[in-house]
Structure formats: structure tokens, C-alpha cells
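queue> pop job 88
queue> type: inverse folding (structure -> sequence)
queue> payload:
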């Protein structure tokens, strides 16, 4: 772990956004979008295996064995890390995204100030779209944190994995992760509607059931913020409308038209005048003209409508670049926003033993460790017989020092 923590610490100081570790290969770093090789740092296959073994929980190791990959998040070197462990021709590999421990604000991310309007909405659907690594999760975290600090609301997030951890402020924030806390996004959405939330965050719209349930949640009066992999606003709408059989597509178009508030398509571009990457947005707002195009299935006209709706706060990517990024005078540097910082949330992470399913034939030692069995643990001293007076009874409330003193006797 020491070499790993050292690499993370150095990466944070140097402004590196991603690290890749694989066996018998130089460590790879991504800085300002460019790939760089560190030929002085090379891990053996066994070292990578051991690193993965130390980073993963037993449940995650089972997932790795079954699916050949696993996603999780952790904290190290004053940074929040999102890690994907996966198998390749070189064996186990790790892709590490470095996140700040403190949640950035909308302004610190150099986003358009109109996004502040989203945090005042009480209902409707907000879609954030773009490729992996475009910063969608960070943008959503900034939106949720602003709601958390300005409104009294019940916020429930469904994520895979939990990247930014929230500390409840004015709002009550609860976070659920795919795997440890819910078997699927669809089940998480069914659960959340029974939990009286005001704001729902859906980390991934991929399966048709998840898409339909997300629209139902928005239609029932909640503010729903969701991510979707799409390269254009039209593609995002098309994917949602095709989540149901053709005979139901008219119904889902009307449902989408009645709930849609914003579509934000995000990518990162290198801006030469500042020397780092900034978000480039396409913004589509749920105006009456956009809603009518969705109902009438005229998706090919959405781009034209956006071009004609400058006064309603809509942007194509080209206009956003020319009319906002190019003319903006000051930007918050990337290194300032993503500098090392302690995590904002101090809540203790806890996995209840009530949610763990014990495998058939498992030994009762697990129950002892969880405190669910009253039978004391018996440890044999190597220099004694099995007679009762030489047995040591361990009280689960005793400290390690007290236990060592007993064993010395």
C-alpha cells in the first residue's frame, strides 16, 4: 500500500486526473487529457494482484471473480478515488480517477451560472449526458450540494459507486450504492418512492426498467437528476423513448415531454487561453417548443429549435464556446478546484451485518465477530492443556491491551 499511497499523493500534487496501473508496464497518468508514461514506476504482476487484494473487500473480490471487473470508491492521501479493477491480457489492471475530497461548487467548476436555477426546482427531470470522464458526476455533485446547503429537502442518491460523500446540512442526504445497498437501480427506484424523497439522483440510466421508473418518479412530483450516456440531446431523448415497445412509445413521449426540465450535454475541452480543460456544455431547456417536438416525435428539429432559442437560455456546443467560454474573463484553475482536501463528510461508513447473507456451512466465528452470538470465543495457549483453567475467555468489549495482559498471565 505504501507505493500506492505515494503515487496517489504525487498525482494529486501534480494535477493528474487519472492513473492506470497494470503488470510489467510503466504506470500511466492522464494530465490535462493527455496520456503520459512513467518509466521509473513499474509494477510486477504479483504486486498488482496484492494491491488489488488489499484494496478490495471480500464482497468485491467475489464480484471480481464473477464479473472480471469491479467498481468502488475510497479515500487515500486526502483525495477521493474512484477505482475500476478489471482483467486484461496483462492480468489485473486498475483505472483510478482522482476526485477532490471537498465537493466543488457550480462556479468553481466553471459551469454556466444558469445552472444555479436547477437547484431551486421542486419537480421535473434533469438529464446530464456525455461520455465517461466528462465530469457529469462532479456536476451533479455540485448541484446536489447547493440544494443541500440552501434548502430543506430529503435527498436520496442511487450511485455506482458513491464518489462524493455528502454531509447533511439543511437537507437530509442519504446515499445508496449499487451492490452493497441495492441489487439494481430499478429496485433502488422502487424503494425510494416509498421513502418520501424530495430529490432523487439516479447515477446511471441504462436499462429500460430504470428509464421507465425514472420517468415515473419525475411524473409523480419529485425532482429527479439522472445521467445518461448520449452524444447529442436528440440521442438522449431517442434512447428514453425507445425504452418501451413501439406500441407504448407515444405514451412515454408524452410522459417525457411533461417532465423534462433540462438536458445538459457535457464534454471537456482544452482552452488555450487558460491552459487547462473546462466544461463545454450543450443546454436544452424544457420550453413549450421543445416539449411539442418531443410529443410530435420531431426530434430532428431539436437542434434548430435550440439555435432559435438563445433568449431562453439554450446553447449549442458551438455557441456555448463562442458566446460564453471565449468571452468569459476569469476561470477557476483546475488545481484550485481539485486540490487535496479532507472529505467533507465525517459520517462513519458502516455495513450492517443484517444485510449480509451467510453462506451455507459457514463457521460461527463470523457471528462471534459481529456480536450476534453470546457464546465466548475460546483461545488455546500453546503451553497449556485443554483444561478449563487454562482456557481464555475473550470479552468482545475488551481492548487489545487488556487481552494481551490476560494472555501473559
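queue> result:
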Amino acid at each position: 500500500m505504501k507505493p500506492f499511497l505515494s503515487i496517489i499523493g504525487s498525482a494529486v500534487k501534480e494535477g493528474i486526473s487519472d492513473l492506470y496501473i497494470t503488470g510489467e508496464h510503466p504506470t500511466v497518468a492522464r494530465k490535462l487529457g493527455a496520456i503520459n508514461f512513467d518509466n521509473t514506476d513499474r509494477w510486477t504482476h504479483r504486486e498488482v494482484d496484492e494491491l488489488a487484494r488489499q484494496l478490495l473487500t471480500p464482497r468485491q473480490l467475489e464480484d471480481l471473480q464473477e464479473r472480471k471487473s469491479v467498481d468502488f470508491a475510497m479515500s487515500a492521501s486526502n483525495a477521493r478515488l474512484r477505482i475500476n479493477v478489471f482483467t486484461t491480457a496483462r492480468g489485473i489492471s486498475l483505472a483510478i480517477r482522482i476526485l477532490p475530497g471537498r465537493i466543488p461548487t457550480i462556479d468553481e467548476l466553471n459551469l454556466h451560472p444558469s445552472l444555479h436555477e436547477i437547484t431551486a426546482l421542486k419537480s421535473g427531470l434533469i438529464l446530464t449526458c456525455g461520455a465517461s470522464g466528462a465530469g457529469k458526476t462532479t456536476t451533479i455533485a455540485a448541484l446536489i450540494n447547493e440544494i443541500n446547503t440552501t434548502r430543506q429537502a430529503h435527498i436520496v442518491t442511487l450511485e455506482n459507486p458513491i464518489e462524493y460523500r455528502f454531509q447533511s446540512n439543511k437537507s437530509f442526504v442519504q446515499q445508496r450504492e449499487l451492490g452493497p445497498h441495492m441489487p439494481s437501480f430499478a429496485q433502488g427506484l422502487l424503494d425510494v418512492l416509498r421513502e418520501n424523497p424530495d430529490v432523487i439522483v439516479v447515477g446511471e440510466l441504462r436499462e429500460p426498467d430504470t428509464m421507465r421508473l425514472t420517468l415515473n418518479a419525475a411524473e409523480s412530483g419529485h425532482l429527479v437528476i439522472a445521467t445518461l450516456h448520449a452524444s447529442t440531446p436528440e440521442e438522449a431523448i431517442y434512447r428514453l423513448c425507445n425504452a418501451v415497445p413501439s406500441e407504448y412509445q407515444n405514451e412515454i413521449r408524452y410522459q417525457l415531454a411533461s417532465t423534462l426540465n433540462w438536458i445538459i450535454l457535457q464534454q471537456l475541452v482544452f482552452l488555450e487561453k487558460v491552459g487547462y480543460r473546462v466544461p463545454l456544455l450543450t443546454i436544452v431547456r424544457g420550453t413549450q417548443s421543445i416539449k411539442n417536438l418531443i410529443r410530435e416525435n420531431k426530434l430532428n428539429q431539436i437542434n434548430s429549435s435550440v439555435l432559435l432559442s438563445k433568449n431562453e437560455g439554450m446553447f449549442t456546443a458551438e455557441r456555448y464556446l463562442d458566446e460564453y467560454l471565449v468571452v468569459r474573463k476569469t476561470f477557476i484553475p483546475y488545481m484550485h478546484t481539485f486540490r487535496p482536501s479532507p472529505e467533507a463528510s465525517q459520517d462513519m461508513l458502516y455495513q450492517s451485518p443484517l444485510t449480509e447473507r451467510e453462506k451455507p456451512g459457514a463457521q460461527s466465528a463470523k457471528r462471534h465477530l459481529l456480536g450476534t452470538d453470546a457464546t465466548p470465543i475460546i483461545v488455546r495457549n500453546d503451553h497449556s492443556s485443554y483444561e478449563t483453567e487454562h482456557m481464555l475467555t475473550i470479552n468482545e468489549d475488551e481492548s487489545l491491551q487488556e487481552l494481551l495482559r490476560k494472555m501473559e498471565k
